[in-house]
């Protein structure tokens, strides 16, 4: 089966009416441990005329050995990109959906610091639910698009940039907690991850509010 190749069709249509198109996509929503990350990218008419980088896909469709290379090309293609984070403690405190919104707001704020204000354009958000505006405190022009990470090149760029950043973060966390094998499972459920939880309990980076396993916490 052929792999879907993202295009700039939607972005180009929107850029006839607005100077900037932003795209956001999340990584880590379903993990048991570690932060959730939201990647954000921005394109304008000039970048939308450029060819989509070779190999750019939704991050789930890019083979892991190639992701860093593709993410680097994607970051060089868009006008700017950023990754926003919400930590496991924040997920426990406010819930996963508001944590996603918080991470997205942080990513978009980083782009605004670079001179790209989301209010000046439109924000494509992968999925069918706007989780940004309930957290932002402003009415940003958010447009949820189902499968945006698959079909819209700007969202594919945000996706792979966020995926590479979060994977690197989980490898760093693995160094302090090697038993959970986050260097390979990146905080998601795996037999060895769950076995370590049953043996050792939960670390400070696990999402304690989730029904992860029948194991006590370490604190």
Kindly provide the radius of gyration, computed on alpha-carbon positions and rounded to a whole number of angstroms.
18 Å
Helix content: 40-55%
The rough form would be described as: globular
Output the number of helix runs: 10
Gist of the model:
It contains 10 helices and 5 strands, in the order αββααβααβαβαααα.
Word description of this protein:
This protein is α/β, with parallel strands linked by helices and 219 residues long. Helix content is 43%, strand content 14%. The chain has 10 helices and 5 strands; from the N terminus they run αββααβααβαβαααα. It has a 5-stranded mixed sheet. Strand 1 and strand 2 form a beta hairpin. The protein starts with 8 loop residues before the first helix and ends in a 19-residue tail after the last helix. The C terminus is likely disordered.
How are the SSEs placed, and which strands pair?
Blueprint: H1 9-14, E1 21-27, E2 36-43, H2 45-48, H3 64-77, E3 80-86, H4 88-94, H5 96-113, E4 122-126, H6 133-136, E5 142-145, H7 148-151, H8 153-176, H9 182-185, H10 191-200
Parallel strand pairs: 1-4, 4-5
Antiparallel strand pairs: 1-2, 2-3
């Amino acid at each position: 089966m052929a792999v879907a190749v993202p295009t700039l069709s939607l972005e180009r249509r929107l850029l006839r009416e607005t100077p900037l198109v932003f795209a956001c996509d999340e990584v880590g929503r379903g993990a048991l441990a570690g932060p959730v990350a939201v990647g954000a990218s921005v394109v304008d008419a000039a970048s939308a005329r450029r060819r989509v980088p070779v190999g750019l896909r939704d991050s789930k469709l890019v083979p892991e050995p190639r992701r860093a290379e593709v993410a680097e090309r994607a970051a060089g293609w868009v006008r700017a990109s950023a990754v926003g984070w919400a930590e496991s403690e924040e997920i426990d405190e406010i819930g996963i959906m508001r944590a996603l919104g918080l991470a997205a707001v942080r990513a978009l704020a980083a782009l605004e610091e670079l001179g790209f204000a989301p209010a000046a354009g439109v924000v494509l958000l992968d999925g069918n639910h706007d989780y940004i505006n309930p957290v932002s405190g402003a009415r940003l022009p958010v447009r949820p698009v189902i499968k945006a990470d698959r079909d819209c090149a700007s969202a594919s760029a945000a996706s792979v940039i966020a995926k590479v950043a979060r994977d690197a973060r989980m490898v760093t966390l693995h160094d302090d907690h090697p038993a959970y094998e986050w260097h390979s499972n990146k905080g998601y459920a795996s037999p060895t991850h769950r076995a370590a939880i049953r043996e050792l309990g939960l670390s400070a980076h696990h999402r304690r509010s989730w029904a992860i396993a029948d194991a006590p916490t370490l604190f």
